[in-house]
Write a structure and sequence with these properties.
- By secondary structure, this protein is mostly helical.
- It has one domain.
- Helix content is about 85%, strand content about 0%.
- It has helices at about 1-45, 50-65, 70-85.
- Helix 1 packs antiparallel against helix 2.
- The chain is rod-shaped.
- The N and C termini lie far apart (about 70 Å).
Length: about 90
């Protein structure tokens, strides 16, 4: 019985450690994606309509608000920015 509790405890601790170690790179990845989309917008602004650029900027601003919080929402906003740019190609 004691061995089972020990294995459960060690497994739980290892799971928490793995989550803590892998979480910061996920935020950094989202930050990198924001910078990539922003650079794409600046470098190729003549390829997109003004509406598409405006919508993409709004989505990127929302993504920046979620960098330190929930990574899933950050990524969702980056995808929205990319969709807006794709939809607004000239």
């Amino acid at each position: 019985m004691r061995l089972t509790k020990l294995v459960t405890l060690v497994g739980g601790v290892l799971m928490v450690i793995s989550l803590a170690v892998t979480a910061p790179p996920a935020f950094a990845d989202c930050k990198d994606e924001i910078e990539d989309v922003d650079k794409e917008m600046r470098d190729n602004r003549d390829k997109y309509t003004a509406d598409a650029l405006r919508d993409a900027r709004k989505s990127l601003q929302e993504a920046r608000r979620h960098i330190t919080g929930r990574s899933a929402e950050c990524r969702r906003e980056v995808l929205e920015a990319r969709k807006a740019l794709e939809k607004g190609k000239k």
